[in-house]
UniProtKB/TrEMBL annotation:
Compositional bias segments (type: Basic and acidic residues): 338-354
Domain CTLH: 46-102, 441-498
Protein name: CTLH domain-containing protein
Protein source organism: Platanthera zijinensis
Biased composition annotated in UniProt, kind: Low complexity: 28-43, 626-644
Amino acid sequence: MDSTPVNWEALDSLIVSFAKSEHLIEDSSPPSSPTASPSSSSSYQHRLLIRQIRRSLEAGDVDGAVSILQGHAQVVLDDHRILFRLQKQKFIELLRRGTERDRDSAIQCLRLALAPCALDAYPEAYEEFKHVLLALIFDKEDQSSPVATEWSERRRFDLAGLLSSILRVHFQAYDPIFLMTLRYLISIHRVFCLRQGISSPISDLSERLLFEDRDPPATPQESLCEAPPFDEVDIQALAHAVELTRQGAVDSLRFVKGDLFQAFQNELCRIRLDFSVLDELVLEYCIYRGITDSATIPSSDLANCISPLSDGEASINNIGLDGFHEVNVDHASIREDDSDIHCPSERTANHEDCSTSSVDNLQSYSGRLRKSRYDASKERRRKRWRGRTDPLELNSEVTISDKDNHNAMTSAFDASRDKCVEDKVSRNHSFQNSSIIDTRKYELVLEMKELANKGMVAEVVEEVSTMDPEFFALNPTLLFQLKQVEFFELVNSGNIQLALKVACTHLGPLASSNQDLVKPLKETLLVLLKPNEEALRKVVPLCSLANNLQVAMGRRLGIEEPQLMKIMRATLHTHTEWFKLQMCKDRFEEFLKIDRLKEVNVHIRGDTLAEGHVDNSVRVLSQNTSSSSSKLPDDNSSLSQASSNESLYDENAVIKVMEFLALPRADAIHLLMQYNGNPETVIQQIFS
């Protein structure tokens, strides 16, 4: 599973889009560009509004939430079901304050707002109104009282979640695709591991990232007794994709008038994320992939997402503006004077200056990067990490009529913010006591990756060998792949003699010492028959090669892969295995770009590079999922169908057996296989 191929460039695209949409990175795109479209900005502002309303209700500030709704979503308040729940919560919050003045205000709320609304909100509303009156005589601390649940602060969070679900549809303010994809993949991963009895290697990460509870669903106003006017295939697809009951799937579809993909988005967005954990994972990934420049990131954030490395020469200076610290790398040690700058040929003739077998000296070599190349690397379009802005700082865009309510809402979060600052200071102190991140190592690895991506493999092999003569001895497959590219380039340029020299000098000896490379060597030599660019692109995807090089060099330098990579490998692996068991295609994988994440040319894979680094939990998962796949039917047609993710039988037949017998999809298909695909025969045999 650790060697599961992933299209990291596709993930880069999803993450950059997410980070821009959430304003986590500075977007240098001009206003007229698609990435900075008005609709994107509007969606972001609406998500901020939803977050503000959620926070207001969770803090018990009902008036603050209502004020925002009046200014931006009055139609939601026109629904008396929602208005009644808001007024009921306001009544409880006024009583919770405990003063005589607030008690009088609570009674006024009963008379002027809650009672009139209870008359026509929904059939049970008046009974609920009479029940909540008991809060006037039972204390909030009395856990045995008949209104203990009304006093519970859990009601705040349920109401906040319900409003979030409704407003998300009203504003069409759905989360970025990356967030929905991450939720979906992790959810399937959990179900797969649970059903197969497998220990998940990412359980600690997934538990920190996703909350157990979900926001309440937004329910339609129509009667639930009506027959659903939806295709049963859609109902079952939604129910199984997001773990709903059949009735829950029907309600979800009814709320969006049968739009399957909109209902799917609604249900995914109900799964709550811990954004502080998410942002740390994304930041760590962005630094590793060169999307953001680590030198511009507050050290408190760096401490959260990157393991400190040794022998750093960066310095931390207090910038004195916002309580954060910034890493300022001494670039003088990198951009040395011209006397220390050598071209590759000079460097070859002077191995004693920079060649060493010690990994520690790789770092010293990074200071010898050529000035022009270092400047070029800094000119790459790196984004500046901004971090998440607290929505409460954007109150200028939200009209709040009651200043007292606003002050109450702000003060309610002071304690939470102070705690966050204390945590940051603590992590910052710990970070300062350890060695500072050596950003030069990242620059060096990213530079080599960029050269490999451009096909400049001869330069890569020469420079890496000069830095660390043992590197390719430890990574022979990677050297073979790099020399493959060099071979193809020479063939395509018509230099057959030099290409054969590369094959004799490097490819042949590598294959003779590693039997796994014999077949790739034969395929490589076949290119002599068709010397064209198409053959090069087919056999050697440069992006995969560059990624493998980055992983290997990073590990050699002590740079660990981001945890997000571990999550994606594990979840994409179990996604594939899950739908093999289900013997069907995932209807939502194209919508969530999962198909693009899996679009990797597997002629070149990093299995050999990763072989020595697979932890025990990963090995166990791989072995168990392999054994689970072996439980599939032996029938050749079923195996071929499962591998191509196409349904074996008519979907309506599968759904009918699932529904009548309350069976999982795979079990229903197995029964159909026994009775020639006839659902009526299956049902008759089971009940006879």
